[in-house]
Amino acid sequence: MRSTTELRDVILAAARAEFAQYGLAGARIDRIARTAQASKERIYAHFRDKETLFREVLAADSTEFFEAISLRRGTVPDFVGDVYDVARGHPEHLRMITWARLEGFALDEPRADGEPVFADTLAAIEAAQATGHVDRVWEPADLIALLLGIGLAWANSPHPDSLTDDPVMIARRRAAAVEAATRIITTH
Predict the structure, then answer these.
(1) Are 57 and 11 in contact (CB under 8 A)?
(2) Into which CATH architecture does domain 55-185 fall?
(3) pTM assigned to the model
(4) Domain 1-47 sits in CATH 1.10.10.60
């Protein structure tokens, strides 16, 4: 017999896979229940409705995504490499965020370690600008958006070869993203 916490975790894992695949509108509670080996009634006992379950998964995935790419952990180019790594290693996180945007959800400000991410990331960019490690020509918020775009470029690419398991290709693409970030932030 599973504990309440174990059952909740199994339901969330099944819901993550379902929502990442089909989005909120296309997801089916009966498939989530079957995958989680739980009744629909148990799911509704834990989560009021499908949208509440979607929001729980989205919040968890957003938190995991943004904790993994926190700029506080290193240099600006490393931040872009982390974005690339997380997008490759956990595509379900990016899919959940994308589904939420497509379905018209207002996204909550991402948090890492319980703190708002963008305030810390802006502060890290401003500090790097103050020390001369990042060109002051950039507005910090604009730079963050551009750097995220670089890190997510292959994850969002329509190129037929965008998905690969080739370690050489993966390393080359990651290095290219880090190099692009390095060139963008370099003071002139």
Answers:
(1) no
(2) Orthogonal Bundle (1.10)
(3) 0.84
(4) yes
